[in-house]
């Protein structure tokens, strides 16, 4: 039988072949358009999403026209869709649709093979004897064929696009789940050595994947490599304790017990353990998985009371927002420790961003939640299924989630508890209007009294009492922010020979604050860089202009002069920053012209640096 007239490949670098010859899709931006259309083959992809995939958050004014040019070029380049020779790419009211037959795209072939294999596996579970073995053989072969379609990391040549990277991450998780299916099916068929050898690199690449480790240990043991299997367990146990402070989960524990018992005939594979789970009742209880509470936590009594009432008493999810350095995470952790007795299934903190400040994809967050809460089910293939399973798991739990540094509503919405006894505290740098109407708590800088008290706890109350005016100058110079007070207070505590007035004078010069902050805590600058990168281009431009002002307090007239714009235009840009919580306004006055605006200190200093860099 002849193959398809055109072949699209995304399970590796992007490739197109027609009539046995390679087709070059064209320049990089055009390849990004084609790649996203292929990832969502036969579905309408919105113009906005295509624009984001190609230009990120800084599209040119001609983006829509340029997108039309790229689509037109791809239409001319690609063979027509069959049957009937219709155009391969069609325009729809909401965007564009790329029409692909199931055998023309490796991604669709992968899905078809996996679906057929899982149907075969389901049939095997209902049968016995030789018939079941035959069906399992068929399932293992189909899964092997599906995995063989992957030529490397998905769209590895286009990973500079955040949208493409998210698609690749989602499909990579699906590939990993299929690899686990293949391994378990193959172990059940007695192919222990093949599984043990083929999984070695995958386990090294995903050391915290419990289901993968369980089947790998089983395969090693049944291959006569019991010592290696025990070593795998020991490495995993140490890694889990060091990285997350967690105990080994029940799947790997079951295999380990079998190894210790030398039950060579049946070392408790994952499938057997999973069959037993429904008879065991509820999933294992989660421990207190929070950072340690701060012994010197100061102030925030009103905000603490609001959180205790909304979350602890009324079981409402709360959105805790405020600028970088204002102490959102510290307050959330402080309150979570106080509410822990009311959440018997546990309290845990999930970091919504990677260390470099980029948002984590939702499938990664769901996978972490399933693992650390003991949600004992194989990872779902589809993200919608994963969300549904997570929500179902929460229904009979009393669990408190701290979702820390949420980048946007789309990341938070799938994780939030619905009805039931679970609740969440979501910390975010700006408001998240897209997550319904949770209770909102706005967190600002410390009041002067609390800031001085906090400083006294760090440097010694006697030093503050001896010169309170200098202490007030110090905390004011660093913006009354808990983060900056903690870092500079820590430095001052070590500099016993430096007087408070001398230190205040040094800080009031302002020019070296970020540099001193970097030496005190190197993680601060990456956080600021991530914040800056996440801003929309108009907000960045406005902040860069405001960074040229001498201080963080200014009027509308000051802003208009800095931006070289009429006041009505400048006011609209300030409103954009107010809506994003990047700017505060002191509302003692009633008109835009007399209102005093304030930028958080760290935002102002970093914006000033960016403005100076752009000018240099």
UniProtKB/TrEMBL annotation:
<keyword id="KW-0804">Transcription</keyword>
<dbReference type="GO" id="GO:0000160">
    <property type="term" value="P:phosphorelay signal transduction system"/>
</dbReference>
<keyword id="KW-0238">DNA-binding</keyword>
<dbReference type="InterPro" id="IPR051677">
    <property type="entry name" value="AfsR-DnrI-RedD_regulator"/>
</dbReference>
<dbReference type="InterPro" id="IPR005158">
    <property type="entry name" value="BTAD"/>
</dbReference>
<protein>
    <submittedName>
        <fullName>AfsR/SARP family transcriptional regulator</fullName>
    </submittedName>
</protein>
<dbReference type="InterPro" id="IPR016032">
    <property type="entry name" value="Sig_transdc_resp-reg_C-effctor"/>
</dbReference>
<dbReference type="InterPro" id="IPR001867">
    <property type="entry name" value="OmpR/PhoB-type_DNA-bd"/>
</dbReference>
<dbReference type="InterPro" id="IPR011990">
    <property type="entry name" value="TPR-like_helical_dom_sf"/>
</dbReference>
<dbReference type="GO" id="GO:0006355">
    <property type="term" value="P:regulation of DNA-templated transcription"/>
</dbReference>
<dbReference type="Pfam" id="PF03704">
    <property type="entry name" value="BTAD"/>
</dbReference>
<keyword id="KW-0805">Transcription regulation</keyword>
<dbReference type="InterPro" id="IPR036388">
    <property type="entry name" value="WH-like_DNA-bd_sf"/>
</dbReference>
<dbReference type="Pfam" id="PF00486">
    <property type="entry name" value="Trans_reg_C"/>
</dbReference>
<comment type="similarity">
    <text>Belongs to the AfsR/DnrI/RedD regulatory family.</text>
</comment>
<dbReference type="GO" id="GO:0003677">
    <property type="term" value="F:DNA binding"/>
</dbReference>
<feature type="DNA-binding region" description="OmpR/PhoB-type">
    <location>
        <begin position="1"/>
        <end position="100"/>
    </location>
</feature>
<keyword id="KW-0902">Two-component regulatory system</keyword>
<feature type="domain" description="OmpR/PhoB-type">
    <location>
        <begin position="1"/>
        <end position="100"/>
    </location>
</feature>
<dbReference type="InterPro" id="IPR027417">
    <property type="entry name" value="P-loop_NTPase"/>
</dbReference>
């Amino acid at each position: 039988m002849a193959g398809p007239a055109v072949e699209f490949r995304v399970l590796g670098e992007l490739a197109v072949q027609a009539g046995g010859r390679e087709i070059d899709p064209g320049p990089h931006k055009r390849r990004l358009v084609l790649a996203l259309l292929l990832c969502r083959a036969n579905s309408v992809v919105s113009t906005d999403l295509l624009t984001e995939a190609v230009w990120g958050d800084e599209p040119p004014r001609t983006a829509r026209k340029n997108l039309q040019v790229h689509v037109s070029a791809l239409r001319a380049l690609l063979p027509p869709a069959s049957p009937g020779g219709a155009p391969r790419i069609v325009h729809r009211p909401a965007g564009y649709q790329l029409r692909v037959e199931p055998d023309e795209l490796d991604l669709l072939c992968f899905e078809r093979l996996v679906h057929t294999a899982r149907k075969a596996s389901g049939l095997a579970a209902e049968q016995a004897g030789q018939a079941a073995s035959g069906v399992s053989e068929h399932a293992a072969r189909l899964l092997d064929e599906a995995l063989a379609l992957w030529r490397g990391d998905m769209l590895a040549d286009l990973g500079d696009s955040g949208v493409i990277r998210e698609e690749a991450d989602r499909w990579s998780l699906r590939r990993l789940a299929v690899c686990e299916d293949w391994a378990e099916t193959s172990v059940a068929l007695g192919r222990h050595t093949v599984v043990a050898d083929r999984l070695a690199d995958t386990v090294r690449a995903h050391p915290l994947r419990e289901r993968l480790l369980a089947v790998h240990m089983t395969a090693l043991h049944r291959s006569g490599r019991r010592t290696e299997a025990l070593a795998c367990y020991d490495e995993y146990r140490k890694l889990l304790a060091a990285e997350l402070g967690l105990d080994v989960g029940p799947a790997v524990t079951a295999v380990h017990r079998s190894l210790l018992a030398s039950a060579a005939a049946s070392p408790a594979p994952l499938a057997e353990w999973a069959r037993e789970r429904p008879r065991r009742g509820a999933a294992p209880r989660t421990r207190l998985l929070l950072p340690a509470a701060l012994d010197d936590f100061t102030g925030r009594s009103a905000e603490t009371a609001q959180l205790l009432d909304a979350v602890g008493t009324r079981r409402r999810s709360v959105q805790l927002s405020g600028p970088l350095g204002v102490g959102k995470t510290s307050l959330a952790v402080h309150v979570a420790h106080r509410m822990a007795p009311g959440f018997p299934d546990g309290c845990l903190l999930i970091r919504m961003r990677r260390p470099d400040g980029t948002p984590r994809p939702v499938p990664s967050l769901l996978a972490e939640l399933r693992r650390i809460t003991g949600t004992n089910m194989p990872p779902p293939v589809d993200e919608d299924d994963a969300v549904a399973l997570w929500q179902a798991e929460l229904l009979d739990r009393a669990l408190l989630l701290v979702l820390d540094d949420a980048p946007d509503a789309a990341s938070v919405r799938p994780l939030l508890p619905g009805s039931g006894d679970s609740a969440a505290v979501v910390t975010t740098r700006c408001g998240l209007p897209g997550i319904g109407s949770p209770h909102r708590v706005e967190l600002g800088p410390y009041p002067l009294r609390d800031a001085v008290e906090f400083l006294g706890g760090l440097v010694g109350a006697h030093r503050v009492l001896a010169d309170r005016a200098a202490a007030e100058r110090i905390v004011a110079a660093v913006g009354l922010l808990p983060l900056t007070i903690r870092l500079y207070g820590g430095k001052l505590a070590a500099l016993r020979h430096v007087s408070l007035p001398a230190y205040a004078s040094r800080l009031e010069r302002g020019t070296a604050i970020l540099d001193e902050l970097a030496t005190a805590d190197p993680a601060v600058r990456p956080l600021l860089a991530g914040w800056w990168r996440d801003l929309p281009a108009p907000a960045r431009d406005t902040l860069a202009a405001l960074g040229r002002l001498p201080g963080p307090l200014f009027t509308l007239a000051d802003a208009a002069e800095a931006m070289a714009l009429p006041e009505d235009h400048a006011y609209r840009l300030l409103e954009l920053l107010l809506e994003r919580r990047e700017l505060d306004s002191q509302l003692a006055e009633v008109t835009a012209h007399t209102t005093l605006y304030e930028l958080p200190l760290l935002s102002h200093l970093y914006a000033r640096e960016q403005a100076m860099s752009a000018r240099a």
